[in-house]
Specification:
heterodimer, A: alpha+beta, five-stranded mixed β-barrel, 9 helices, globular, B: 287 residues, alpha+beta, five-stranded mixed β-sheet
Chain lengths: 273, 287
């Protein structure tokens, strides 16, 4: 653990994820995290959760803990970029300027908090899954990738974006992942195991164990330093300590080693769904 | 740094039958109180209304009721481009809020949103994105996003990230060619195309590759830029591998450098070194 803390501290010094600057915000508002749609300087759109989103603002946090939803979204989103093809939308820290924050209010009247927020790239031709039909069109190999990813990161409240033709799917909404849902769960944080299989109840196609293998291989050969980078350079405004993030990283590294074994055990050579 | 002005906009929607509630985006209204700017831009062809119809007269009266003046002596061109013009320059966000809340009939306005930037440019961009009918083939590809992100990351420490332009337009003679990424500071250095052979519609990838290989000599001769493809090879060793080879051979024959998407970071490093050591970069890097 001490070594992880040192490495993470060094990465914090080196890693400079450039913030994207929001030039516009529009209330999107689905779900408890009260997301916004932000346009950034190059015209790209992001789904943005601000520091005072509906879930993070109600947290009771210990002094070493960062904002749960924003931090978890950012870490899981970065980890999803390590796979090829990516497993979840590109994430970025989106800076909301004061002037823009002052002009935008949540429906209950509170003003948006300016500063670094968590952003997830908006794909114009993909839709979040609400119905069984759409996810069922996604090829099982892709669903297997999402299951591995979400299982690794203790996925809960699973959601996915699916392309209009049903051929592609990306994992989204990772705020409840890692350890605890709207609050950090110290017991889960201190106990990386067991790894429990995530199930997409609405998916009806057969998934053979062989379909998991490529993604499991990718997961196993991910460079530890690349994984660690996902936990670095979290904005100071989100709070928390390096020690806490090192614990999270340790937990994720521990879980990685067990995902393959767990999926193999459960499948036992027989297809599910 | 000069602070860019704060503007507000609403998307104007035409709902021909409010019972069916099928809205069509027909225009953008944009205000910039600090610049005393108020303008709108409409695609009136989406209304399918002629000036001499009763419905047009109804629309006219609704607009008039909200103190937005229709152009008086407009010529045909103005009529094509605008329906409301000009907006009162003293308007504020509150006026847009009023339109949003009150207009629930044939004309509706989206909840006003704040946006930072030059108002004329923003009006054009918003119009293009939210009103004009989408052209096919403009969807962002993931390899392009992935590559652009890597280029920006590598260029950032040298203050060169502005050289990376996504969806770069390259005007050559009377044509406008588009590349996924342009490395440019005004003068195009690299024109980059990304292609994924992991896509299901290989036929389309093949055609796209063929097209870019075919036109490359025109771009190279006119701009002096270097051509680069970043490709995602097929995962399987099957027929797609053969097609991949054919297409990339076309590129190589035309003098285009071909690398895999995985090599993007190395390529970006190489290009950034090249830019930093080129004699002309010191003049142009400042902006």
């Amino acid at each position: 653990m001490e070594e992880l803390i040192t490495r993470l501290a060094a990465l914090d010094e080196q890693e400079q994820h450039p913030y994207l600057q929001a030039i516009s915000l529009e209330y999107f508002g689905r779900g408890g995290s009260e997301a916004w749609r932000a346009t950034v300087q190059n015209g790209d759109l992001y789904v943005v959760k601000t520091q005072n989103n509906g879930q993070d603002r109600n947290q009771v946090r210990m002094s070493d803990e960062p904002l749960k939803i924003l931090t978890t979204e950012m870490i899981c989103g970065r980890l999803g970029q390590l796979f090829s093809p990516i497993v979840c939308p590109e994430v970025a820290i989106i800076d909301i300027p004061d002037r823009l924050a002052e002009e935008n209010r949540f429906p209950d009247g509170r003003q948006v908090t300016a500063g670094p927020s968590s952003g997830s790239f908006w794909y114009s031709e993909m839709y979040d899954v609400k119905d069984k039909g759409r996810i069922d069109l996604v090829p099982p190999e892709q669903v297997a990738r999402i299951i591995v990813f979400q299982t690794w990161l203790r996925g809960i409240d699973q959601a996915a974006l699916v392309s209009t033709d049903g051929r592609k799917a990306l994992s989204i909404d990772h705020g409840y992942y890692l350890a605890g849902q709207t609050q950090w769960n110290r017991t889960e944080l201190d106990h990386p195991l067991p790894v429990n299989l995530v199930q997409l109840a609405q998916y009806q196609q057969r998934i053979e164990f062989t379909m998991f293998e490529p993604m499991l291989q990718e997961l196993n050969i991910l460079d530890e330093m690349d994984i660690l980078k996902a936990f670095a350079a979290i904005p100071a405004a989100w709070g928390g300590t390096i020690d806490f993030r090192a614990k999270l990283a340790y937990m994720v590294l521990q879980r990685r080693a067990t995902v393959e074994q767990m999926i193999a055990t459960i499948w036992k050579g027989t297809p599910r769904w | 740094m000069v602070e860019r002005p704060l503007c507000f906009f609403s998307v104007v929607r035409y709902v021909a039958d409010p019972i069916r509630d099928e809205a069509k985006n027909i225009g953008i209204v944009l205000l910039c109180p600090e610049k005393h700017f108020g303008k709108s831009k409409f695609l009136s062809s989406r209304l399918y209304l002629h000036r001499d119809t009763r419905k047009y007269a109804v629309l006219h009266s609704i607009i008039h009721g909200y103190q937005i003046e229709l152009p008086g002596d407009y010529d045909e061109r103005l009529y094509e481009e605008t329906l409301f013009a000009p907006l009162p320059s003293e308007w504020t966000r509150d006026d847009l809020e009023m339109l949003y809340k009150d207009c629930t009939n044939l004309l509706q306005f989206s909840r006003p949103a704040a946006i930072i930037g030059d108002p004329d440019t923003l009006l054009d961009e918003l119009f293009c994105k939210r009103v004009q009918v989408k052209q096919s083939g403009t969807t962002l590809t993931q390899p392009r996003r992935q590559a652009a992100r890597i280029f920006r990351k590598i260029f950032h420490p040298y203050g060169l990230e502005n050289w990376v332009k996504e969806d770069a337009e390259v005007p050559v003679r009377q044509h406008r060619f588009r590349f996924d990424i342009g490395i440019t500071n005004g003068t195009l250095r690299y024109a980059i195309k990304t292609l994924s052979f992991q896509r299901a519609d290989l036929q389309r990838v093949e055609e796209t590759g063929g097209y870019y290989a075919h036109i490359w000599h025109i771009i190279r001769n006119e701009t002096g830029a270097k051509g680069l493809w970043l490709v995602e090879p097929p995962k399987q060793f099957d027929v797609s591998r053969e097609r991949y080879k054919i297409v990339t051979d076309w590129a190589v024959e035309e003098g285009i450098d071909v690398h895999t998407l995985e090599e993007t970071e190395d390529i970006a490093q190489k290009i950034v070194r090249e830019i930093r050591h080129s004699p002309s970069s010191s003049h142009t890097m400042q902006w």
